[in-house]
Design a protein that fits this description.
heterodimer; A: alpha/beta; 5-stranded parallel β-sheet; 11 helices; 30% helix; globular; B: 246 residues; mainly alpha; 43% helix
Chain lengths: 420, 246
């Protein structure tokens, strides 16, 4: 395995940690490789390393040195969080026994059990965890492709796209129009588009109160709809228009050069267009042959193993996880089940029955937080919802504030759980 | 159960003009629904345990603890101008309301219901004493308190956690595995920011608290969902694990 000097930094640190675990000195350790350092991958790498206490050689492959969480990126757009506060490095994972390799995984040879890296190296594995998040389906918004992402940002992956969108919103002309082309199901973070609209409205209410927000939505209904619509009515009356495709007709074309959106035969000129395309599993999952016709990865509900290969686990947004939504919380929950089965397969440790859960918090306006959550069990067929709850319309301000504060606690908790 | 005569009349204790009518209603309720109603006069005596910190009745004001007038139907941490613990504020914001059911839990074991409460009171174990005290406190609330089957005075089932459940010996290794689920929100470092710390709790408190969520006595729906899906053994295992985390 060849690596550059910079890439080997994590390896050196991991080696030092491994030597501290006397049981494995001189032994050839089984290898777990994780592709993708988000809520699923980082959690899986950390838990495999932590719980195997050095008995498994863990490598995390992630191109970015700084990870910007997608969750809470809307709060950055709304001005409630700084970009720094949603940025995380992999330093603690590296010093806790995870060999962090900053490179792109470009292919997986499942027969040879190796992962090819863009830098030319190849990494062998005994168990592979694939957690690449999402990529976009070409052609899902006519007129839009990745070359248009600067004119019409998606901002559906954390980092520079989020910064760009925020800057565009802040420089809108007085009375201008922000339009969102919302994605069809299934997509990352079901309440996300509507929380984003709330955060954009919060910005505009303060800085550009005559501006308008249009949502072109291919779906006839959306997550937490009653809660969002109640909040929009209350906090941003007259500002937000939700255009259901059944009513206005689907988006037929977007024109990045002229900033126009064509829907139902009508051309709308906008100042900012936040185009969020239809989604599929991150490209590497497709290249590795782990996806089906849906574009996502079927998994074994009890273990998160790929239906295509028992030595490969798939996590998070890239999977078909039955009733579980695509969220950071879900990916983190799934990662712990996968980590347990990776360990059980490689070291013979005990595997307990899977437990899955999810909660999604959304912010509608300052201290007006709402949440939806559920628990799930593995059946033969799918991960099935057993029980759930959702915030109610008409809740008092103290409860909404408490829900918002709870979301801050969750953010601190899950990022510590992912990155150490 | 034999009862001694209360040394002082309720009228003198409370100073409320309506006391006679209220007591009449209470006794009427007690006769019709004899299961849960306490003896307010006896409760007035038990209240001696509370009065070094709490005032109730005419001209009651906040002292070490908040005043207890209009307690029934009041949201927890709901007295303006009183500085509550963060945990009690959180419980109130999450929807904890004082009524017979919740007061029973709180008076029996304050930390069982609200872990970080500043109410330094070891609790009243005797069920009848709590019934009596609650019957007494009920006199100072103007909400519809005389309908025994309706909140806030609805009859309560025994809130105690079954001693057999408390006696389960938890497996900390299993608890460590299960704790992965908790760590998504509760920080392993014990930091308390928006979501409370759960490390280093005495196992008994931990078990009591989770069963209070399971039985929906504690308000937060996320935790109710978590607790509902944990078996008694799993709760014991988590308690054993978190007890040992500093």
């Amino acid at each position: 395995m060849k690596m550059t000097r910079r890439q080997t930094l994590g390896t050196a640190l991991a080696g030092a940690t491994a030597l501290a675990a006397p049981a494995v000195i001189g032994a050839v350790r089984p290898r777990a490789v994780v592709i993708g350092g988000g809520a699923g991958g980082a959690t899986a790498a950390r838990y495999i390393a932590k719980d195997s206490k050095g008995a498994i050689d863990v490598t995390l492959i992630e191109p970015s040195r700084t990870y910007y969480t997608c969750f809470f990126s809307n709060l950055y757009i709304g001005g409630f969080r700084s970009l720094d506060s949603i940025a995380h490095s992999y330093g603690k994972l590296a010093s806790n026994g995870v060999n962090v390799v900053h490179d792109w995984a470009t292919g997986v040879d499942r027969d040879a059990k190796t992962v090819a890296l863009a830098g030319g190296a190849s990494v062998g594995y005994d168990r592979l965890v694939v957690a690449p998040g999402i990529d976009f389906r070409e052609g899902s918004i006519p007129g839009w492709d990745l070359s248009a992402q600067n004119a019409m940002p998606h901002a559906w992956k954390g980092g520079s796209q989020t910064e760009l969108l925020k800057a565009q919103i802040e420089s809108m002309a007085p009375g201008g129009v922000y339009a969102m082309v919302a994605p069809p199901n299934p997509y990352r973070c079901p309440p996300g588009p509507y929380e984003r609209v709330s955060m954009v409205a919060h910005q505009l209410k303060a800085n550009n109160p005559t501006a308008k927000i249009l949502i072109f939505d291919p779906k006839p209904k959306f997550s937490k709809q009653a809660l969002f619509q109640e909040g929009w009515e209350q906090h941003y009356p007259g500002m937000i228009e939700w255009l259901d495709a059944d009513f206005t007709g689907p988006v037929e074309d977007v024109r990045p050069a002229t900033m126009e959106i064509v829907a139902g035969g009508e051309v709308t000129k906008v100042d900012v267009c936040n185009a969020i395309p239809a989604q599929k599993a991150g490209l590497i999952a497709e290249k590795a042959g782990l996806t089906d016709a849906s574009g996502f990865c079927p998994i074994v509900p009890a273990t998160m193993q790929s239906r295509m290969d028992e030595n490969v686990f798939v996590l998070g947004d890239a999977t078909i996880a039955g009733d579980m939504p695509k969220s950071g919380f879900s990916a983190n929950s799934q990662a712990k089940v996968a980590a347990m089965h990776v360990r059980a397969g490689l070291t013979g440790s005990k595997a307990f029955p899977a437990k899955y859960s999810n909660t999604c918090w959304s912010l509608i306006e300052t201290e007006d937080g709402v949440k939806v959550g559920a628990r799930y069990e593995a059946t033969e067929e799918k991960i099935a919802k057993t029980d759930g709850f959702i915030s109610q319309t008409g809740e008092d301000a103290a409860m909404r504030k408490q829900t918002y504060e709870e979301s801050l606690g969750w953010y601190a908790g899950i990022t510590a759980d992912m990155f150490g | 159960m034999m009862r001694r005569q209360a040394p002082m009349s309720i009228e003198r204790l409370t100073g409320l003009a309506l006391w006679r009518c209220l007591i009449g209603g209470l006794i009427g309720g007690a006769l019709g629904f004899s299961a849960s109603a306490g003896d307010a006069e006896q409760g007035a005596r038990i209240y001696a345990k509370c009065q070094s910190c709490h005032m109730v009745g005419a001209e009651a004001h906040n002292r070490v603890g908040p005043h207890l007038n209009e307690l029934f139907g009041r949201k927890a941490a709901g007295v303006e101008g009183y500085r509550y613990s963060a945990e009690l504020n959180r419980a109130g914001a999450n929807g904890l309301v004082w009524e017979a059911r919740t007061l029973h839990l709180y008076i029996e074991n304050p930390r069982g219901l609200v872990t970080g409460t500043r109410m330094a009171f070891r609790g009243i174990a005797e069920r009848q004493d709590r019934d009596d005290l609650i019957a007494y406190l009920r006199l100072f609330s103007a909400s519809p308190r005389d309908i025994p089957e309706a909140a806030p005075t609805a009859a309560v089932r025994d809130p105690d956690v079954d001693p057999a459940i408390l006696a389960i010996e938890g497996d900390p290794a299993y608890g460590e595995y299960l704790s992965g689920e908790c760590a998504t929100c509760h920080q392993a470092s014990g930091a308390d920011k928006g979501i409370p710390s759960i490390t280093g709790w005495p196992a008994r408190d931990f078990v009591t608290a989770l069963h209070a969520y399971k039985n929906k006595h504690r308000p937060n729906p996320v935790m109710q969902l978590v607790a509902t899906n944990l078996s008694d053994e799993e709760i014991a295992a988590l308690a054993a694990f978190f007890q040992g985390v500093d």
